[in-house]
Amino acid sequence: MSTPLDEVGDLYAFRVIAEERSFTRAARRAGLSKSRLSARLARLEHEAGTTLLERTTRSVRLTPAGAELLERCSALPAAVGEARAALRAIARGRDDELRGLLRVTAPSVLGRTIVAEAAAEMQLAHPSVTIDLLADNRYVDVSAGEFDVYVRMASSIDGTLVGRRLATMPQVVVGAPSYLARRGAPRAVADLAAHSCLAYRTGALGSGVSEWRFVFGKRVRSVEVSGPFVANDGEAQLRACLAGVGLLIMPRYRVDALLRSGELVDVLPGATPVPQHVWALFQSGQRASAKARRFVELLAPRLQTITTRPERP
User: Contact 215/274 with Cβ under 8 angstroms?
Assistant: First the structure.
């Protein structure tokens, strides 16, 4: 009784003979004797109940049944090649897998929470790995190669960077009831320009001016906002928003509980801010190490659980 392995070998032998049109050349290509090739072909023809190849002393020719079978097994060498390539990749990965130093950088709040949890899971599962995590909002140049994994939040990334998008974060514009009682609520996106909005500081000095973007059908519309409070940390901005200093645009998962409790209000329920994406970037031009790939595999489902939620209409 033939096994699945025998069946694959029989089909591959048939394809080689059919392509070479010669048992001698086919035997050389397959690394088998002509008698072994003949035995494999005979087994196939017995199973098919018909002749697949007509043989003479000078040539080998496909029968109609053989031509049909050849077409059906055309992807066989490619599939075998892909499987072998995957096997070699696994073997290469084991050289540096699950040992040594893994350097990760992430935005402060995300780094202190979800990324830190994934890093702890990584270390406990693989004790030979040492984690060096920088949870900070300072700019770190990916091309400098200081870290193995760069976790970033952005609506898009430079196309020259090597990485993977891990999750999507729907955003929402929120305000405290005390702010809304004092200033009222915006009725449209354009009204935000007349409100106190909490800006994110991107450089050494904050200007107090920021650009918020919203999706309208297939178009994206921007509005320039400003306010009296600038910070480079989402937690600091959230505290100021809760105190009633101004309005804030924030990933929805961060404020869901506050919206449910009434401590914050969705001030533009009919508007859809451009979502933030979470990316895992690697050193430019380099293949990610097995440690880095494993860490990203642990981080991705944690992010997707809390961030991928239906956006409000």
Answer: yes
